[in-house]
Amino acid sequence: MAEKTRRRGAELEDAILRAAADELAEAGYPGLTMERVAQRAGTNKNAIYRRWPNRAALGVAAYRHVAEDRLTPPDTGNLRDDALALLRAINCGQSSPAARILRGLLTGVGDEPELRQQLHDQAAEGGPKPWLTILDRAVARGQARPGARTPRVATVALVLLRNEFLTRGLTTVDDAVLVEIVDEVYLPLVGA
Amino acid sequence: MAEKTRRRGAELEDAILRAAADELAEAGYPGLTMERVAQRAGTNKNAIYRRWPNRAALGVAAYRHVAEDRLTPPDTGNLRDDALALLRAINCGQSSPAARILRGLLTGVGDEPELRQQLHDQAAEGGPKPWLTILDRAVARGQARPGARTPRVATVALVLLRNEFLTRGLTTVDDAVLVEIVDEVYLPLVGA
DNA sequence: CGATTTAGGGTACGGTTCGTACCGTACCCT
DNA sequence: AGGGTACGGTACGAACCGTACCCTAAATCG
């Protein structure tokens, strides 16, 4: 009968999250179906609903699994190149399916502030940490003013890029836009 | 029987759009249901699907119907107050229930690039024009550098506020956030 | 003024998906 | 060995989308 042993606990949970992440990558959040996730994970909806209360929660949890690859902040010795490298990594990089997924999640989470908070915190494209890192180095080199080291200021370029994704509905933005964001906004904003 | 004459054409279309806009304002895009719109408009889904191919198209059309009021840029004689006034007008949405609807649509219209394009073109909280207007006046007063008069730079505050709406899922942002956006980002960016 | 065309009203239906409930069974622990 | 827990399978109700069908009011035209 080729019966494998019945999975339990963490092993099964991991399989579910992996299946959900695959579905997200293939069909995006609108295509994330509980039944298909269950089938792909070789289990049933029961095991899913015992862990997450609804589809949105599963989606957010699975997104965690996908977007695990943190951006490692570049260190070119030049703030402009660092910022461009970060934007390009988000834009072209492997996280471009992640952008689509994130967009779908933002639409689907609805009125659940807790899930939105999770998305916003850890979320999206590495969060504020890499930006604060490159800013710290720039301040040390005298290329940025110390007052710029706040999350709001540091992530302005990220927010502008995200805005391009959201309003234009694209998964990739023209490189000239990245240059424009850096040269017209980011450097004048944080520069000394 | 108090039978009113059967509505047709533009009259019925107007009633449907009005009902859809009301539903959008109350429950947001996820709560926009064809059957409820039909019931609220005193008709049935038939009349709706004869005019719009699907739910998303109806949502965008309903937004169009109520989004006429443009923001008139304030003129306080002070760039900081002008910018705050614009942000507050968008935030409170008192100028238009349309703003709230737009937020719901932006978060709710998922993977339909055509509709997203329509929203982005015609809409978006007044667009860059009022921001360019207050910047022009500020430049004339010596409160802003001339190079800041580009759409990308001028609308940074708007984009940051929109980002708050989208990532936090709120319909209203705390006023302190507006002040932070203006003082930490906008003024340092455009100031001379 | 009567006949024809058009468009709205009412309703039912298929398909899909969410989320829940029930029941039998394999696994873990003591 | 025995019990509690968690998994597998399945069926079900509810909501919603989009479509189909028939009937009727209204506009249009001969």
Description of the molecule:
2 copies of one chain form a homodimer. Chain A has helices at 9-27, 34-41, 45-49, 55-66, 79-91, 96-109, 113-122, 129-140, 151-154, 156-168, 175-190. In chain A, α1 (9-27) crosses α2 (34-41), α4 runs parallel beside α7 and α10 (156-168) runs antiparallel to α11 (175-190). Chain A is built from 11 helices and no strands.
Q: What is Rg of chain A?
A: 19 Å
- Helix count, DSSP H or I runs of 4 or more residues of chain A: 11
In terms of per-residue confidence, which ranges of chain A show pLDDT below 50 for 5 or more consecutive residues?
A: none
Extended strand count of chain A: 0
Report on the biggest sheet of chain A.
none
User: How confident is the prediction overall: mean pLDDT of chain A?
Assistant: 84
What is the succession of H and E elements of chain A?
Answer: HHHHHHHHHHH
- Oligomer description: homodimer
Share in β-strands of chain A: under 5%
Which range best describes the helical content of chain A: under 10%, 10-25%, 25-40%, 40-55%, 55-70% or over 70%? 55-70%
Structural class of chain A: mainly alpha
Distance between the termini of chain A: 71 Å
Q: Of all protein chain pairs, which has the greatest interface, and how many residues does each chain bring to it?
A: A-B, 39 and 34 residues
Shape of chain A: elongated
Secondary structure blueprint with pairings:
Two copies of one chain form a homodimer.
Chain A: H1 9-27, H2 34-41, H3 45-49, H4 55-66, H5 79-91, H6 96-109, H7 113-122, H8 129-140, H9 151-154, H10 156-168, H11 175-190
Helix pairs in contact in A: 1-2, 1-4, 4-6, 4-7, 5-8, 5-11, 10-11
Chain A binds a DNA duplex (30 and 30 nucleotides) through helix 3.
